[in-house]
Amino acid sequence: MKKIRVLLANSRPRIMREVMRQLIERQPNMEIVAEVLDLLALVRVAKETAADVVIIALEDSEALGLGSRLLAECPEVTILALAAKGDTAFIEQAHLGRRDIADPSEANILSALRQAIQTHCIRDK
Amino acid sequence: VENVIRVAIIHRNRLFREGLAFVLCQQQDISVAICVAEARDAFVDVEKLSPDVIVLDFSQRGRDGLQEACQLREAVPGAKLLLMGLTESESDILACIEAGAAALLQREASLGELVDCIRAVIAGEAPCSPKMAALLFSQIAQSAHARKHLQLQGLPHLTRRERQILALIEEKYSNKEIAVQLHIEVQTVKNHVHNILEKLQLHSRREAVWYARERGLLRAVY
User: Does the ipTM surpass 0.90?
Assistant: First the structure.
């Protein structure tokens, strides 16, 4: 089965990046294809790695307009945006727009992400 | 495994604290006893479960977190307090050490460093970066210099904290306001004031401020 290709775009403190990386690596159907610290390189790396999912800090996604730029250039990508405080998270896709994840626990975030990818795949077929 | 280190995690980012708890539980010698967002949610459990190490996030709390840190240490005096997410601000570092932190982890510390730090504080060590060590060396040297200077003048030595409190008394702060300002308990302020009056052999706060001002004891408090 094809694994979900995850690109970590992260300006957070190192320890948070490492926890996030470990979380993804624990998922049997996910793999990290790259980690981007320089957000200016995000769109290019997302294209080069053919990432299915880009995980990004919500603050960067909104403040830098990165989310909309990314979806315009790579409409097949699913964005998972996580707030630094951990109280807000959302999924954004080109064709479905933005959906907030209620109660963003580890389990809820992963479940919302899997569901979003599934919806994407069904739609693409 | 014997001697498992019981850790309490207090961090507002739920995804992070759950992820961190998972990683720590993978270590044979570490277990996570408490995993909560706010210190106030941990008080009942810390008293009941007495963790060996309390990992408290400083990055999202800032100095407000110091008061929580003091309260946690009072609730579980045996627990080692590890503050994470610090910047390189010297005043933050000193304030955290004064609040009773056993170790400090800076913003760019790795997960591996956090795990090592937990083990180190239990072994009685106080791991810190070379920059923090340099800061502490300089503070101790300054303090020794000030003490020597005062002894030469025949003046009683007041600690940095005592001088800070005197300076705030001079600004007409009450004990309660000083406690809030310095992120310490009111009783601790009272103890400091008592010690100041005893050292200066005076009987009132006003006399102490006047005495200290006249002799230049309040200069370069911070």
Answer: no
Give which of B88, B80, B73 is closest to B125, Cα–Cα.
Answer: B80
In this structure, the dihedral spanned by the alpha carbons of residues A15, A16, A22 and A26, taken in order and rounded to 10 degrees, is: 150
Q: What are phi and psi of B7, to 5 degrees?
A: -115, 140
Distance in Å, alpha carbon of B57 to nearest chain A alpha carbon: 11
Q: For the segment B167-222, what is each residue's pLDDT rounded down to a tens digit?
A: 899 888 999 999 888 888 888 899 999 999 988 888 888 888 888 887 777 765 54
Q: How far is B65 from chain A (nearest CA, A)?
A: 15
Contacts of A84 in chain B (CB under 8 A): 13, 60
Q: Which two tokens stand for residue A103?
A: 């109660």
Pick from B35, B74, B42: nearest CA to B188: B74
Which pTM value belongs to this model? 0.73
Q: Which two tokens stand for residue B125?
A: 């060590």
The angle subtended at Cα A98 by Cα A93 and Cα A104, nearest 5°, is 110
- Asked if A13 lies within 8 A of B110 by C-beta distance, the reply is no
